Each structure stands twice: as C-alpha cells, then as structure tokens.
C-alpha cells in the first residue's frame, strides 16, 4: 500500500520547479515524519552494481583517446571525460525510468511520479533531475531500514554511485617524446630534478579558459595578487609542468631508467618506454587511481637528456658529457608531464592569510589525499608544504590541493616494510618523520608500519595551515620538538580551533599509532565541521537514522547537481560520499559528543 497525502503532492509539485540545490534540504525535512529517506536509496541502488556494470560495458570501450599525439592536453582530456560523464548520466536516467520505476505500485501517486520524472529528466540539462521522482517514492514503503547490514549496504551503494569515473583503455597508450613538447622557463629545481614550464606543440590555447575570472582582486593582498597575476599570465602560454629527473646512475635505456625511478611514476596515467618505437616497456608498475587531491600526471616517458634553457647555469652537473664536459649525468633520463599548478602550499601561506574556512578546507583535502593513498597501499613518506601544490583557478579562497613528488613513496598493500638493516630507506623528510618510523631499530624480524605515518605528518603540517609555526621545525620562539623524543604533553595547542578539531589534532599526534584515528575518520571530522548538519552535531546522542537521513539528503543533492557545478564544495562532498562507511562516520561523530 502506498501512503499518499494531497499536501505532499503540492509540496512535490513545487519542489519539481525549484532550481536551487539548497531546496533539497527543505524538501527532505517535509517528508521526514514518515522516515522514508532510505527507502528510495534502498530501491534506487538495489540494482546499483548492475547499473555500473552496464555503464562500464557501454562506455569503457568507447571512451578512448585515439589520436593522442598533439592532442593529449589536459583541456582535451577534460572535455572528453566530461562528454563521457554526460553520456553516462543520460544512460542512468534512462535506466531509472526503465528499471527502477516499475517497482512502484501503479496508482495515482505512481502515475504522477512517472510523469514528473520523465518531464524533469528530459526537460533539459539544467532542470532539477529526480526531485519529483524521489519525493513521490519516499512516501511509499514500510519504514526506515534499521538493520546494520542493510544500512551499511546503503553506504556501499552510495559509494558505488559516486565512484563511476571512466578509465582509459590500457591498449591505447600514447607515443610521446620530448619533440612533442615546447619547453619554457624553469619553475622549480631540487637536488633530484628540475621542473620546466611546457606545452604541447601545435596546441591552440583558449586564453579565456586559462584566465582566472573568479578571483576578486579585493580578496587578495598585494603580494599574492602580484604573484598570482604573473602566474596566470604565464599560464596563457605554458599550461603544463615538465619534470626532468637527474639521472646519474641508471643506464641509458628505458627499462633501467623506469625501474630505477619507478616511484616517480606512481600517479602517471601512461608510462611510455621506448619512445622511438612507441612501445611500452613491460616493467612492474603500480598505477595509482586518479583522485582530485593527487597531482594530475598525464604521462611519463624516457628520452635523451636535452640542453634546455638555463640548463648550463642551473644544473650543469646533471648534464651528460656530450652537453657539458664537466657534467656527470647520463645520456637518457625520465620526463614527467603534469598539469601545471599555480603555487605550492608554502608559497600560498607565505603570501596570503587564508580564512578559517579555507584553512579547514585545505586540511580536509590533505587528509582526503592520504585516505586515497592509504586505501591503495601507498605511503608518501615525504609530505611537506613544498610537495603540496594548489590550483587557484576557482578562487584564491577556494584552492584545490594536490599531493605531488612521489619519489620517496613506498608501495605495498600492507604498508609494512621489512627493516633488516640501516641500508633500507625509511623515507625523505627526517624532521617530519613519524615516531614509529624514526625510532625503529633494524633487525632480522623488524618491520616499519607506515599505515598512519603520513597521518602523523599531516597533523604537524596542520600547525602551518592554521597559521602557527610547525613545532617540529627549528624556530627562535620555542624549542624544536623531535619526533623520536617528544611527549604528547609537549605539543603546543593551536589557538581558536573548534573543540572537535583540537581533539582530533591531539589524537593524530599521539606517539603510539594505535591511539591515532584512521585517516578516513580524521577526514570525516573535518567534513562534518565544514558542511555537516548542525542538528546532528549539536546532539550528544545521535542515531543511525539521523546519519543515514543526512547521507541520503547529500546524495540527492549530488544527483541534483550532476556535472553542472564544479566548485570546491561539490568536490569535497562527492569525495566524501565516494568512500563513506557508517562505522567510520560514527567514530568521527564521537569527537562532537
């Protein structure tokens, strides 16, 4: 039997015409009395796996870039993925009409729901898709799902719905060489590599797309405004960053170079071996799935070491003998082609004082990146503000954060490294090395556990993000802490933080990794502070019903917006929903009790 009230019909009719995503919350509150939030998700995603399988079968084979040479740019790729996403969204809409709607009793309510859904779904890209459909369907059913396994299934299906990114076919790897690139000035230089600005040759650049129209000048102080403007001007010509590794040891062949520098290629979408033949070298490589908070690395390839602009002055020792008689470099090396970002986190914090909301969003994105790495069996082991890049395209107050430089990373599903002798490398940043890593002594049965080491390092960087000096760096104002000797009571408190965040940082910096929260729980706490429901956070006792209702509301909002909005908050919400688990969310809510 379907429960149906005339008042609900009027409400739903009004909801269908709403254009603002914020009306989703008002609409869900109106039907809250019958407790039917989960009913729609339960029916909506009952066949979720089948939906995704059909989507993958239909679009995985078709979403392939065939003509990559000269067209491998980030702009072209983004447009291709956007078209694929729109096609998949239309396919899902049709699937809802053909498969989900049939489960509702053929009554007046169902008929109204069908007509409303069809009108909305086919009414245009900017129409609110599903609200009428969801509103009618929520009124039907027998009540809220209360069993833990069924509630967890709701979370699982929410994850499945959000994790629908298409993957490029492994059989269509591009053939790329240095001759396909136009190299510009040096962006950055370190001990192991140099980064040049770059672009693909014969590429027509749309200056309007690269210009930052959304960055109001009055919100930027003079130092950052000047720096930011200059960066954007350079982006008009060079929209890529080309990293050339310094090769002193590996033999001058692709196989030796890729094996010696394989960790640098962890985030790469493509690995090109013998660039003269266009064949990939069959070496063991772990490819990290893409994530909005991991650097976008288009490809990695080997080629002859060139004499690039400023090379003789900037890095003469890394050049081979044929280019510099005093050089020690090899004739071939590795090149990494990445999206170009505006600045690193250290520069951003130096020139600009972000608002508390921006500070929290930066820390949340950093934790989300660590969650992704941990879930995929990767420890970065060299986190610092220099290795964190920011995209300021949306706004200087809405930077998108990514982790880069995986040269010191460790890849293992268990994240445990045998440590028989001091010859085994522990990681890169000694000052910000977690205590369980720094204090481990080598032995025949000794292992180093990296499961929560990056989380500890992120907590130390929180001091810098929230406007304080990092206590594990030297400073004239206080005594520097050492990670292998400090006690929990030595840690200075970050002023003016919300209590849940202050408690979280204390737990993240516990010497004993067992006492630290998981990266997912830590990220959940930050998400709840940013955009969690006040009603849920104000109570000392929460129910799973309240939590599930909130998740369903946010999922409906995500469906509503689709690909029409590309803001930092949409990015954060979708990242959160794509990995949500009820137990981890419950553990995060404990910090608010």
UniProtKB/TrEMBL annotation:
Known EC number: 2.7.11.1
Localization recorded for this chain is: Cytoplasm, Cytosol; Mitochondrion inner membrane; Mitochondrion outer membrane
Gene Ontology CC, one term: mitochondrial inner membrane
- Record key words, sorted: ATP-binding, Kinase, Magnesium, Membrane, Metal-binding, Mitochondrion, Mitochondrion inner membrane, Mitochondrion outer membrane, Nucleotide-binding, Serine/threonine-protein kinase, Transferase, Transit peptide
Broad enzyme group: transferase
Cite the SUPFAM superfamilies for this sequence: Protein kinase-like (PK-like)
Name of a matching Pfam family: Pkinase
Q: Catalyses which reaction?
A: L-threonyl-[protein] + ATP = O-phospho-L-threonyl-[protein] + ADP + H(+); L-seryl-[protein] + ATP = O-phospho-L-seryl-[protein] + ADP + H(+)
Biological process terms from the Gene Ontology for this record are: autophagy of mitochondrion; positive regulation of mitochondrial fission; regulation of apoptotic process
Give all residue intervals belonging to the Protein kinase domain. 181-530
Membrane topology (UniProt)? Single-pass membrane protein
| Signal sequence interval, chain numbering | none
Q: Which GO terms describe its molecular function?
A: ATP binding; metal ion binding; protein serine/threonine kinase activity
Presence of keyword Plastid: no
Main localisation: cytoplasm
Cofactor(s) needed, names only, are: Mg(2+)
Q: PANTHER family of this UniProt entry? A: SERINE/THREONINE PROTEIN KINASE (PTHR22972), SERINE_THREONINE-PROTEIN KINASE PINK1, MITOCHONDRIAL (PTHR22972:SF7)
What is the protein name stated in its UniProt record?
Answer: non-specific serine/threonine protein kinase
Q: Which taxonomic lineage does the organism of this UniProt entry have? A: Eukaryota, Metazoa, Ecdysozoa, Arthropoda, Myriapoda
């Amino acid at each position: 039997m379907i429960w149906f009230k005339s008042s609900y019909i009027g409400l739903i009719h009004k909801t269908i015409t709403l254009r603002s995503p914020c009306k989703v919350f008002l609409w869900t509150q109106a039907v809250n009395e019958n407790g039917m939030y989960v009913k729609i998700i339960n029916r909506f995603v009952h066949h979720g796996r089948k939906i995704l399988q059909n989507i993958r079968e239909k679009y995985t084979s078709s979403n392939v870039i065939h003509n990559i040479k000269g067209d491998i740019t980030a702009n072209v790729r983004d447009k291709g993925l956007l078209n694929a996403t729109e096609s998949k969204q239309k396919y899902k809409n049709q699937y809802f009409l053909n498969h989900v709607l049939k489960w509702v009793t053929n009554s007046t309510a169902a008929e109204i729901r069908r007509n409303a859904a069809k009108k909305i779904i086919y009414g245009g890209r900017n129409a609110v898709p599903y609200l009428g459909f969801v509103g009618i369907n929520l009124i039907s059913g027998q009540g809220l799902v209360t069993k833990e396994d069924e509630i967890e299934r709701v979370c699982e299906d929410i994850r499945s719905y959000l994790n629908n990114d298409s993957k490029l076919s492994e059989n269509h790897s591009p053939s790329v060489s240095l001759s396909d690139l136009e190299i510009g000035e040096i962006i950055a230089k370190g001990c192991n590599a140099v980064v040049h600005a770059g672009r693909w040759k014969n590429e027509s650049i749309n200056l309007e797309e690269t210009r930052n129209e959304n960055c109001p000048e009055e919100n930027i102080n003079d130092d950052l405004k000047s720096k930011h403007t200059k960066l954007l001007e350079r982006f008009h010509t060079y929209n890529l960053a080309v990293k050339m590794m310094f090769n002193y040891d590996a033999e001058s062949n692709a196989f030796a170079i890729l094996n010696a520098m394989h960790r640098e290629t962890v985030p790469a979408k493509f690995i090109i071996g013998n660039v003269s033949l266009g064949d990939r070298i069959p070496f063991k490589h772990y490819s990290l799935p893409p994530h909005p908070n991991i650097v976008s690395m288009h490809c990695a390839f080997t080629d002859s070491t060139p004499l690039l602009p400023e090379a003789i002055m900037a890095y003469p020792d890394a050049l081979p003998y044929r280019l510099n008689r005093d050089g020690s470099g090899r004739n071939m090396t590795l090149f990494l082609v990445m999206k170009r970002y505006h600045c690193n986190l250290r520069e951003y914090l130096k020139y600009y004082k972000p608002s508390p909301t921006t500070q929290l969003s930066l820390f949340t994105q950093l934790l989300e990146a660590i969650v992704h790495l941990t879930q995929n069996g990767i420890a970065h082991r060299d986190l610092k503000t220099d290795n964190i890049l920011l995209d300021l395209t949306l706004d200087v107050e809405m930077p998108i954060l990514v982790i880069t430089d995986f040269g010191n990373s460790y890849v293992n599903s268990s994240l445990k490294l045998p440590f028989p002798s001091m010859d085994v490398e522990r990681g890169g940043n000694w000052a910000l090395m977690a205590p369980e890593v720094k204090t481990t002594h080598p032995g025949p049965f000794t292992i180093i556990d990296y499961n929560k080491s990056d989380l500890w390092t992120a907590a130390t960087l929180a001091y810098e993000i929230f406007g304080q000096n990092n206590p594990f760096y030297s400073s004239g104002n206080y005594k520097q802490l050492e990670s292998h000797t400090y006690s929990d009571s030595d840690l200075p408190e970050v002023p003016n933080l919300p209590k849940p965040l202050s408690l979280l940082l204390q737990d993240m910096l516990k010497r004993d990794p067992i006492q630290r929260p998981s990266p997912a729980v830590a990220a959940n706490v930050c998400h709840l502070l940013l955009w969690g429901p006040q009603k849920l956070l104000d109570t000392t006792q929460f129910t799973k019903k309240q939590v599930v209702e909130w998740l369903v509301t946010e999922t409906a909002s995500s469906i509503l917006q689709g690909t029409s909005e590309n803001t930092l908050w949409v990015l954060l919400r979708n990242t959160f929903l794509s990995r949500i688990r009820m137990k981890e969310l419950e553990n995060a809510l404990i910090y608010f009790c």
